[in-house]
Amino acid sequence: MSFRKLFSSSSLSLSSSTSINEDNHTTSSNNIKSVQSHRSFLRQKDSSSSISSSPSSSTLNNHNNNNNNNNNSPNRNYNNNNNNNSSYSNYSNSSSSANMNHNSTSMNSTNSTGKSQHHSLRRFFKKFKHRESPPATGSSTPSNNHSRALSAGRQGASNVNIFAKYGVPGKLLGTGASGSVNIITSESNPNEVYAVKKFRARLNNENELDYKNKVAHEYRISEYLNHENIIRTFELIRDSRHENVTDYYIVMEYCKYDFFNLVMSGLMETNEIYCYTKQIIRGVDYLHSNGLAHRDLKLDNCVVNSFGVLKIIDFGSSVHFRKEIPNGYYITENDIMLGPNTKLIPARGVVGSDPYLSPEVFEPQGLGYDPRGADVWSIAIIYCCMILKRFPWKLPKLSDPSYKSFAGPQLDGYNSLEYEGEDDLRHSHHPPVGPERLLRLLPVESRNVIKHMLILDPRKRYSMYDVMSDEFVQSIQNCTSGHSSSNHTHHLVTEDELNKINQERDKLKRLKDAGVA
């Protein structure tokens, strides 16, 4: 089915009202622990509902008015906004620019000049300015048919009153440049809980077809995917109750726990981190095996259900990278062949959040880059964030001192990937330079795979097949929907729990400072 037909007047509905209440799973919950302690300093967001039965309007003003975080000064490429703490806020921000806060509460990183660099792990909120450059001719864009399977789809848009079908929206999970996400409970079955994204209204200067293509692009990709580490998408609803106004909604699986909050809680054990890492790897490997690259992998774009199963969200920046070629096709020197009858569709444009980006996305656009390698790089950065509770660098450019210390020797032609042994480090009078600067901070067993996932040359970097085949990754015990691993416990924390504990910690600190406690 073409993107245009997706928005035709024909009305198609979801074949069945599938319950996605995660508590209906039969897996054991012995390895799940709801915790009451943490090291996070996150703020409570506005819990008011943004989905209403009134005609659609842009949510940007409300999102901007909530921008009241005064504790951090903005960096050149970042905007302050640390109120929304739900990962679904990023699911509502597809194809927008990344924003980042930095402060001095993070672990220190010493650069080659001896100065302390701070790369605090902070949440990203994509707002007004698009991070993505205009795609060049021939690039994979939302209007392309990504594949026959994607263009066919399982169903089109249901032309119904979403409130009559699903009931009144509940808590606001997130608001962003492309819309807002709320919890919504089925009118007929209170055990069926969903996350519903309402797309923003079309902008005055926005072409109608481009707007519909953006909606269709995100829906078609997420609706096509079927993997336990990918968020499930159930339905696209077109609501035309109001004259001259059409609202679009995506109904998707609701997961209770925000992955960013879980990482920032400081409660994750090493094997728990390994479990989440392998789940992300499995999800991305599934995407790549289906010819799709995510291009915006980060902590904020993951959620976790009550059984410790991680789900990747937000496919607004994803692209199809595999193209079938006909017999007799003339293969040029610029073509990268993926198989006898398939070639690579290079990605173009700087898409994603700065600390997670791979260096090749900043290269002169020209022939573009392989988006698969960018995903591999981002997974390694996510792992480092979980271990270190900070970013290795702000931006993968030589203007960033920490990145320059990591990448400089490689660019100069040194074989710095063969990092020093412990004895060498013990007797060295100079701080390590090159990848060892980062790798020495990671668990020994994980260094080899991370080393190969962070190779600067994307042609030499590990593929997802290589990552999946790595001995360390193979050894990780990861939880699934029907199995809880025996070597770790998942410490699951809701935002409300974090806020309450933060208040208690702040109160205790004030009493201690006053000499009372």
From TrEMBL:
> Quick check: keyword Kinase in the entry?
yes
Q: Where does this protein have compositionally biased stretches of type Basic residues?
A: 116-130
Query: Where ATP is bound, by residue?
Result: 198
- What's the EC number here? 2.7.11.1
Q: Give all residue intervals belonging to the Protein kinase domain.
A: 167-473
Protein's UniProt keywords contain Zinc-finger: no
Give the protein name, as stated in the record: non-specific serine/threonine protein kinase
Which source organism?
Answer: Candida maltosa (strain Xu316)
